[in-house]
Every structure is written in C-alpha cells, then in structure tokens.
Write a structure and sequence with these properties.
2,3-Dihydroxybiphenyl 1,2-Dioxygenase, domain 1, 207 residues, single chain, 6 helices, binds fe (ii) ion, 4-stranded mixed sheet, alpha+beta, globular, 5-stranded mixed sheet
Length: 207
C-alpha cells in the first residue's frame, strides 16, 4: 500500500490495486534482450525509439526514452545462438514487444523518419483496437510500434472490434499521404478493407 512505499520511491511509481483485486505491478519496467550483434542492435534501438544511452559497458547497454532509467537493455553475447520471432518462428518465448505512440501523427512521422534510415516495417495492420507497424531488429526480434484507436480501455471494449482479431493490412505510404492531406486521424484509425487485405474472421480478402 502507499504508506509502505519509501518516500523516495513515491514519485517513481504509483501503487496499483490491479483489476483483479490483488496488488499488481505499478508498471512494466523494461525488456532486456541478449544479442550477438551488440553494436548493430544498440544503434537500431537508439534510432527506432529515439532513445539515449544511460549507461554502458562492454557487456550491457541501458537505453531509455522517458523517465525510466532503462526501458530496453541489451546484453552483449557474441556467441549467442540466433533466435528471434521470425528467424526461429516455431520456438517458444517472446513474440514481440510493442510501443505505443501518443497519436497517429507521431507513429506516421516515426515511420517516415525510420524509412529514411532504411528501417522499414515488414507488416502493417490495423487490428481495430490499434494501428500497428511491425519491425525486425538486427537479431530478428519483432518490435511493434502502434497507436490506439480509442481513448480508454472501456471505449475499446465498447466500440472496438473483438480484441485478438488480426485485422486489415494497410500501406503505410498511403496512410501517411492521407494524413498529410488532412484526413482526420479518427477516420484513418478505422479499419479500411477497401485499401488492404482483410484478415477478419469470415471476411473474404480483398485483392
Ligand atoms: Fe502487439
């Protein structure tokens, strides 16, 4: 409970009486990835997340992009066996990590910035609840950059399609062009089966 939290810690994390009634973690802290491509992965996460190095050694680098001391850390292991969601697609473990942007414009401008650096998504899909772009880091780990379609969990559950549906693929250049043309984000965040493959259950894929 909040009284038990040392004063020095109170500004860092608010107590969280979780949705199921038990005390839940106050936040998700970080992800640590073991990499055989330390320098390449280090630069990739700095570029993709707009992150800065907080601390580093030949063994580890700590990266952050907000008030956390590290959101991503990379563990240098040159002899590590290749892995990653797509290079080893039928192994258990992490499927992807997802980062949410504050709005569609932030996501699309990040897409554009990364494309200029030669970093492009391998899959773009409107899941209904989110508009998502999936990238692969140098080790083949999948990273999702997304924006929510709704302002709250309640709104998502009330007005969104069933969570878990794959959704409708989209062309990021097409979405960026329509955003620049002034189409409201509210419209662009809706699934549009006329502009991409429709993976929703019971729907026929559009050409
Ligand atoms: Fe995801």
């Amino acid at each position: 409970m909040s009284e038990d939290i040392p004063i020095a810690d109170r500004h860092r994390a608010q107590p969280n009486q979780g949705r199921a009634g038990a005390i839940s973690p106050a936040k998700l802290a970080h992800v640590v990835l073991r990499t055989a491509k330390f320098e390449e992965a280090r630069q990739w996460y700095i570029t993709v997340l707009g992150a800065e190095v907080i601390a580093e050694s030949p063994l580890l680098v700590f990266l952050t992009y907000d008030d956390e001391h590290h959101r991503i850390a990379l563990l240098n292991d040159p002899n590590a066996a290749p892995g990653g969601a797509l290079t080893q697609p039928r192994t258990t473990g992490l499927e992807h990590v997802s980062f949410t942007y504050a709005g569609l414009g932030d996501l699309l401008l990040t897409y554009e910035r990364l494309a200029k650096s030669g970093i492009e998504p391998h899959w773009c899909v409107n899941h209904g609840a989110t508009t998502s772009m999936y990238f692969l880091d140098p080790d083949g780990n999948q990273v999702e950059l997304q924006v929510d379609a709704f302002d709250s969990l309640e709104e998502t559950l009330r007005d969104g399609p069933p969570i878990g549906e794959i959704g409708v693929e989209f062309d990021p250049e097409d979405l960026l062009a329509r955003y620049r043309a002034g189409v409201p984000a509210r419209e662009l965040l809706k699934q549009d089966p006329t502009r991409g493959r429709d993976h929703r259950p019971g729907r026929r894929a559009t050409p």
